[in-house]
């Protein structure tokens, strides 16, 4: 392969190390630690595994994790009421509602119960607008993590033609808006796109966010392009890695690329929320 | 020219005629008429002309216009307070804050004081999310008007490659999200885009929303494409009309294309708000 690796593991580790120092510095000023509350509904094993991983990372950097587990049969009203309590609880800096909630829970209503100032996972309408219009607010964690990765590796975005493959609520759509706010030319492709190959092969930067392993053939990638693969189905990427890595200038591995950056972004935003809410520099 | 005209004047007129009948039908059920409140800050003559035009159209279809004029030196807090009153006033169905407000007024704060259920001009974060995720809510009036024009002329959007030139808060950005929600492949181009010509010449549908007369040369348009020109600078379009009209299959004139559709969309959404708020079919 000729591409250089956008190393999410190493970058996330460096961010977490910086956060350890930052949290310790802030705590000395306030006597408090940032608090991230996670609401999880039901007992989906994958969700509990993710939450456990987040809790461990929180502890590692000095963020206090709080976990609220609600029964699988909870109504929308019950979940909304728990989220509201956290929104009003002055000790809480960030609120994360673990996705997916059981089918009877209206996720949109639950998300909108999150105080936008505590929406460190970037799921509210207010956060969407903040991303679109580059205003103060928080980013959806996965696209936010990808932007951080681009930043750390000095990937130029302005004026470059970027393709986002996928248009989900907390990945594809905010991803495109964040790139647009950084002056990229942005094309959204998706399941109804005609001739995906044609679009991909023209792009300077490809963000794959479809969750369909192998959807993007390696030889579609333009020579010298940048590839960020947020594929998440069965831990396999959307992009055929080996062939793509022979053509790209930069590429994320799966796993070890986008995945660890998502948690890093979440924790970084939790600390940022703590700083803002306490008026700290 | 070979293109057929996307006639905004005729389409808007037909929509307004339908609204006359609809408002009369609704009023018979409720004894009430839909109310659109407009807040205008200062005495910019162009803004007052626009508002006057909107007031006249309201009266024509049977919507009751209310106009709140605030002094040019109003603070953000004063404007927000007026908008809040309208949000809480049960007799008001729609709220429009005339753009632009004087520089000392924070438009974002003012917009967010609009009850999302009355945001018939589609300027709040909640409306942006509703457009992005195809949820119940209102569309920004100009992109909403363009979508209505496409609908009325049966312009197919799904799977087609659409370019939006421009990325403003209430025009370019929501336009792209609305097209994406209708399954178009969407490219956002803007002032930082490299080789705009290349992008435009590939598009099946071009929405010009830059406000730069003549930015898009007519011979960039692909044969058989659809062109909607939301150009608004000095009443001149972004697209070189004569040459474009020889190549396109459908094109909007300027004036008489997108402009009248903006008001039609605003009034249609005001009536829709009245229907929803009173639980009417």
Question: How is this structure best described in words?
Answer:
The structure is a homodimer of 281-residue chains. With 281 residues, chain A is α/β, with parallel strands linked by helices. Chain A has helices at 8-30, 45-61, 76-88, 107-112, 125-133, 141-152, 172-181, 196-202, 241-247, 258-277; strands at 4-5, 35-41, 64-70, 94-97, 161-165, 185-189, 205-208, 226-229, 250-251. In chain A, the strands form 2 sheets. In chain A, strands 1-9-8-7-5-6 form a 6-stranded parallel beta sheet, sandwiched between helices. In chain A, strands 3-2-4 form a 3-stranded parallel beta sheet, sandwiched between helices. In chain A, strand 8 (226-229), helix 9 (241-247) and strand 9 (250-251) form a beta-alpha-beta unit. The longest helix of chain A is centred in the first third of the chain and has 23 residues, at 8-30. The radius of gyration of chain A is 19 Å and the shape is globular. Chain A starts with a strand and ends with a helix. The interface between A and B is medium-sized, with 32 and 31 residues. Strand 6 (185-189) of chain A pairs antiparallel with strand 6 (185-189) of chain B, so a sheet runs across the interface. Chains A, B: Its EC number is 1.5.1.5, 3.5.4.9.
In short:
Chain A has 281 residues and is an alpha/beta fold. Chain A has ten helices and nine strands.
